[in-house]
Specification:
- The protein folds into two domains: 97 residues, Orthogonal Bundle (DNA polymerase, domain 1), CATH 1.10.150; 123 residues, hpI Integrase, Chain A (Orthogonal Bundle).
- It is built from 14 helices and five strands.
- It is mainly alpha-helical.
- The strands form two sheets. A three-stranded antiparallel sheet has the order 1-2-3.
Length: 308
């Protein structure tokens, strides 16, 4: 194999400074992922005394094989995206475009068979249980509203904590109209409109009645029983979901399968079971690609023969 050996005398490009060019063009989470994966690649190359920039196809193929021992194919694929991006930034030939790299990834996927891991969906029944076990205090008011609204709007946790009070509108029919101003697939902030159930409107109204009108974020932190004018962290949403399903009495091994993404996954699966078509579900959740949505719906326990 044509391996490009690394020498300490080789002039190494400052790839970290190149990533600064991406700031403002990509989400912070994407930048962190790029940085982490390129660091992983350069560490591998240094350990194996291979040249990372420009890397050749053989180096990348060996990297795929090495990383595939511990990582899922999807994680290795993410690394390839980062390697491709940094080579583009350095204006170097892209080694990931070589057919040998594609073949190495195919071999990895064939040797690591199994379904892609996905957060367990919170069903309508799960949600009712989670809402019922919330305490009768300010934290319970907030968490009930957050769980119900996140479910109805099929939001990602970043979208949920980014909602401002002005982003929701109480409608005459007892529901809410909300605008999600920016999301993972909407980096330029075109926004999408979502609607909620009457239950969510009621729970949000109860939360706002306690919280007051002088707080900008829809969901804020609570300190010593008082609302503070600061948005929740995304990690807090995951904690609220985990604590809710645990309090609902689900087995610990099942609780581990839930995450903040479970609201979005479960709502999509429930819409499928309710008979809504793909276009309606995509509209409700802001999906741009049917490929992504299909992965969500694949895990829905939907028996099409149930009524027969």
């Amino acid at each position: 194999m044509d391996i490009m050996e690394y020498s300490h005398d080789t002039l190494k490009p400052d790839w970290r400074s190149e990533f600064k060019r991406l700031e403002g063009a990509y989400a912070p989470a994407t930048l962190r992922a790029y940085y982490t994966d390129v660091q992983k690649f350069t560490d591998y190359c240094e350990l194996e005394r291979l040249q990372p920039f420009p890397a050749n196809a053989d180096t990348v193929c060996n990297f795929i094989t090495a990383q595939g021992v511990d990582l899922r194919p999807s994680s290795v694929r993410r690394c390839l995206c980062a390697i491709r991006k940094i080579h583009q930034l350095l204006r170097l030939p892209d080694p990931t475009a070589d057919e040998d790299v594609n073949l190495a990834m195919r071999r990895l996927r064939r040797t690591k068979l199994g379904r892609t891991r996905q957060a367990k969906g919170i069903t309508g029944a799960h949600l009712e249980q989670c809402l019922a076990v919330q305490p009768d205090n300010p934290w319970g008011l907030r968490n009930r509203a957050l769980l119900s609204l996140g479910y109805d709007l099929l939001t990602r946790r970043s979208e949920l904590v980014a909602l401002m009070t002005d982003d929701i509108e109480f409608r005459s029919d007892g529901t809410l109209r909300a605008i999600i101003r920016r999301g993972k697939t909407d980096p330029f902030g075109m926004g999408r409109i979502g609607f909620t159930s009457r239950r969510s409107a009621q729970l949000v109204g109860e939360w706002l009645a306690w919280r007051g009108n002088d707080i900008a974020p829809l969901f804020c932190g609570i300190y010593r029983g008082r609302a503070i004018n600061r948005s929740l962290e995304t990690t807090k949403v995951k904690l609220i979901v985990k604590e809710a399903v645990l309090a609902a009495g689900l087995p610990p091994e099942e609780v581990a399968a839930f995450s903040s993404h479970s609201l979005r996954v479960g709502a999509a699966q429930e819409l499928l079971r309710a008979g809504f078509d793909t276009a309606a579900i995509m509209r409700a959740g802001g999906w741009r690609s049917t490929n992504v949505l299909v992965r969500y719906l694949e895990y829905a326990e939907h028996n099409v023969w149930e009524a027969s």
